[in-house]
Design brief:
single chain, about 425 residues, alpha/beta, Rossmann fold, 2 domains, 8-stranded mixed beta sheet, 14 strands
Length: about 425
Amino acid sequence: MTSKEEELKKRKTYLQIAGTACSNCRKTGAEVGIKALLRCTRCRMSCYCSRECQKADFSFHKHLCAAVKELSEFEEAWYSCNEQESEWNKRNIYHMQLLTEALDRELNNYERNAWLHQPKCHVCFRTTRDLQNQSPLIPCPECKVTFCCSSEHWEKHREKHQSLCKIYQLMINCERIRYQDTSETLWAPEEWDANAIYPPLPKDWNGYFKWRKNSQFIHLDALCGVITNNLSLPLTILSALERFYVRSKLRSLEDLTIHIIGASQYEIFALMTFEEIMHVLPKIKTVRIIMVGFELPGQNHGIDLQCCSRCTNSGRKRICAFYPMAYHEYGSSSDYTAPHVSAGFNTGLYEDDTELWKPTIEFLLDKETPCVFTSYSKEEATQDVKILKSWGAKVIVGAKENKWKSTMPLVEPQGTDKFYYNNFYRTLLQGRV
């Protein structure tokens, strides 16, 4: 099994976390022809369609399972949330601290998501563990990932949920596409309208799909959402290049170097779509993508990536290099080459490791590197801009909605019925004021 397949297998979907899909094969009870899934008797969290699937998942499940069992026996940890979402969030954080102690290590992304998104009543925030006799929560029959503890609470919540259920269903359908057969749907068709010369880019996703001769995807919301989630990265970069360089310069470029700052699995999984840059810029012969970030798997100085037949026949190349380090450390190394643009996606600059970002930002400002940063929300983008300006950055576009944002909804882990989208807002900066 490849490392990507392993990562995708460990990643639990919302249906799996909700207990309405098998924790191993991701199929629901209806899909395998059984009335109810088998629930793990020790942790009561993971569910399976068969004993075989339970055994197959055991190597991924066993450590968290034991920690959850230990937590479940700690009665003092299950204090009442008093129907307050803020108390629910505080208790969740406390529980994750206890799980970390039980595991003797930090929770990984999959374990953290499973705990943050565990089923709860959307009115009183009680889990099955909080209910007398551990009564089952009642799921929405449509989306199957939203719960209430009783018919009375469903009556209170139903009106609000009706306006959001379609978004939950879209989210679930996107996940079905992304994790079907342990692979993600990538965007790699080889046809586009050669009569349309870009830049400028089309005005929106509909125009883009029309240019790519795949306008039928516009009517398939889930598939479109998955596609835009990946394509959002290269299209956001292209739109930034349009702002930083004159059109004639872009159309004549033969070599392009892009730096991805704080790169992680999101950027790696979307790597195939960066070929779109060569499809949009007609003269490009070589695109160099330098990914820098602590979460990268290992260092390499550049490997050739496969291209579509049209680009291959035209002698085009994509080269990608990984540097698992801070960006300013890479900038101080002999491997550093100045980019045409640097991009940081969903950086969380103002709330996560702000001080670690400061030397990287200062390096970029000193080099007068054209930069584009994205954020999940306007609030985050606004806070990012405040910090960037406090460090002396010359902000060219500040906290503006990105027309090339992802259309695939993601659930806010510490909010009820709140969604966010990758690269929803963008900020452009270059040099100092």
